């Protein structure tokens, strides 16, 4: 029993120490975190870029290879969830809050402060702003998720092994070593990366919910309000996680889809329709045309500040999310083929994200003559408020703002309850139905860490946490790619 609890005990202790340090020693915590972030982004940015491109190539190559017909489960197994519910859970767990937080704010930020060599506020800056957003929210993150999810779905449902990240190393190092000390170290890394990645999103969601309530109802935007919001939503997401996937998580995921679609539909009806369509078509062309250049775009002789602040942050954030989202995707994907899994996980949600940015990014950039460059620059520094400011300039802006606040809450709940479920699996030897007590503990700890990061440096501290926690996981994910190939070759033999 003691052996089985090692990952749980060590992970909880580390998470508690981080939480308490962030809450009671916020200044020193912020300084250490910032130093760590600077070192990682400056010295290893090239590794993040290269690794994420490898994940994209690997995922698509596997999907359309001879291994694409392998079933993630027994040969006669069928998918557990309907495709629409599957997409809803994928989308809610994998993106959620981030789309709402950055949908308007990110294109505006790139427009007023683009990469070195591009004139801020120019037509070139506008095209760059949309293409950069497409790169960050397109195929790359989902390819990373699909690698972890594919390996876990295969090892769990076809080979009957525990649903742990360490189980993915069985083809490489054997079952005995994968379940020993080395395997437990990998599972602890997975837990810490998950906690940091999810806490980043929860923190951003809390800040934006508070900003929306402040903008609409003058509710104070301060630490007390953050705490109240986190406590209320923690109760809800912990309850839905304890209720299980079939009831709580599936129900909230379906609600997410309805709210997100409603929000997009209203935005299209009141927004610049032609600009939205032109943006989607034109930027998709730019995105495909410059895919490899953007994937590896780092300057060895000049200024990389934009790359370090945006793309490297995003790649680290997605890698930090990979163990959690990958594990959750695996849990809901039994019975699908490898090809169906990768195409469903990599392409379908990515297209949804590109449509989202085409709609909301166009709404923001369409107001460049109304706001002016100074106001847009101010909004880029307040991403949690930008969305509500932009909505206020359109008909039914108040309706859009209210739907968005509700959507933030449901996305918040979906991401957090999925993560609570996965963290409990990781710390209970991969059990597909972990104990409610562990879910309660992880539900509370996620909220604590998010709050600790927020009060120790706001958005910057949240970003820093994800970058630092993701670094060791790059090497784990690269090893998973090798392990999957080895396992599939054995399968074919």
From TrEMBL:
GO terms for molecular function: transmembrane transporter activity. InterPro entries: BCCT_transptr (IPR000060). Its main location: membrane. Keywords: Cell membrane, Membrane, Transmembrane, Transmembrane helix, Transport. One of its GO terms (cellular component) is plasma membrane. It is a multi-pass membrane protein. This is BCCT family transporter. It comes from Peptostreptococcus porci.
